[in-house]
Design a protein that fits this description.
Alpha-Beta Plaits; alpha+beta; 4-stranded antiparallel β-sheet; about 100 residues; about 35% strand
Length: about 100
C-alpha cells in the first residue's frame, strides 16, 4: 500500500475550491481506487493523506485531465506552495 502526502501553504480558499476538492476526492475514491482520503487544515497549512493499493493508480490519478486542471488552478489561485510525497507503507498497526 502507498500513501500520497500533500502538504500546502494556502494562499486563498473560495467556494470553487471546496467544490473542486470535493469532486476530486470522490473521483479518487470511486473511479481511481483510492482506499482512503483524509485532509485537515490548520490556519494556512493543509495536509492531505490519500492511501492507494499501487503506484499505477497514483500515476493514473495524477494524469487525469480533471486533476491536471485542478493542479493548475491550485498553482494559480489557491496555493502559495506545496509538497507532494509518495511513500510505500511497510508496516501498519491498529488498535483495537
Amino acid at each position: 500500500m502507498f500513501v500520497v502526502i500533500f502538504r500546502a501553504k494556502v494562499r486563498a480558499m473560495d467556494g470553487e475550491y471546496s467544490q473542486v476538492a470535493g469532486r476530486l476526492r470522490e473521483l479518487a475514491l470511486q473511479r481511481f481506487g483510492c482506499l482512503e482520503f483524509v485532509a485537515v487544515n490548520d490556519g494556512p497549512d493543509e495536509v492531505a493523506l490519500s492511501y492507494w493499493p499501487d503506484e499505477e493508480r497514483i500515476r493514473a490519478w495524477k494524469q487525469y485531465s480533471e486533476h491536471v486542471l485542478a493542479q493548475e488552478l491550485g498553482r494559480e489561485r489557491w496555493y502559495e506552495s506545496y509538497i507532494v510525497q509518495v511513500a510505500n507503507i511497510g508496516r501498519e498497526y491498529r488498535w483495537p
